[in-house]
Amino acid sequence: xxxxxxxxxxxxxxxxxxxxxxxxxxxxxxxxxxxxxxxxxxxxxxxxxxxxxxxxxxxxxxxxxxxxxxxxxxxxxxxxxxxxxxxxxxxxxxxxxxxxxxxxxxxxxxxxxxxxxxxxxxxxxxxxxxxxxxxxxxxxxxxxxxxxxxxxxxxxxxxxxxxxxxxxxxxxxxxxxxxxxxxxxxxxxxxxxxxxxxxxxxxxxxxxxxxxxxxxxxxxxxxxxxxxxxxxxxxxxxxxxxxxxxxxxxxxxxxxxxxxxxxxxxxxxxxxxxxxxxxxxxxxxxxxxxxxxxxxxxxxxxxxxxxxxxxxx
Length: 313
Hints:
Layout lengths: L2 H20 L8 E4 L4 H4 L16 E4 L7 H12 L4 E2 L2 E2 L12 E4 H9 L8 H6 L2 H8 L2 E4 L4 H9 L4 H18 L1 H9 L3 H23 L9 H6 L7 H10 L6 H22 L10 H10 L4 H5 L7
Parallel strand pairs: 2-5
Antiparallel strand pairs: 1-2, 1-6, 3-4
């Protein structure tokens, strides 16, 4: 049983009956589910994940005070706290994890402000550009078990994908970083005898290429420790995960340094092939820098297009 399954079972067995019995009038205004921080919200949890912040529970979302008053929220908090502390062999903790509680009663607006800076998911283009993808991933991950009020579902759908101009801007920046850090800087660092710097260049190439892969899939990249797990599950470019691991874990002595340059070129070709397939660039060029500026030229919003190409990375 993974964390999402445990949360749903706990909600159906204890949470929903409590709400139906004690808060029938409030029930149509509430939402419940599991989303936000934690590997279980992405479905990435395993046996190792159970050593911290892993417990039965769910998120109970409340609309604004005009719909659910402070007193009603307080009563809901007390009722949630009184639910059984043990379920499926796990026990709810008494101490909130770092960053505050991840489960329990919360205002919908507070949840989304914490991750996007806005209470309703309405963002300006510049706000979209400034938000890290891992924060947006937390806003739309997991599963909503019930939402008769519809507010949480509407906000999550609003945030599900960024505007196309924003995607283009982020992608253009990542392509340019790939061009700078990949075979060019990797090779120069090796010529200078700076093998440590060369490995940093390889790491920067992987970071940028991985970000580009998620952008080309139209999926937010989660926090870095789950990035490889998420990458392997993508519909496109998922096979690059093995090549990324090779670049990060192999040394820079011959013959591996030659092999690493070839791998970077292969990764670049695969990503540019997808860029052209999606119609993001009209150019047949295999030059990453050329393609980066071609992707940027396709941005319709003049203000976003005029920003520095690296403004969103």
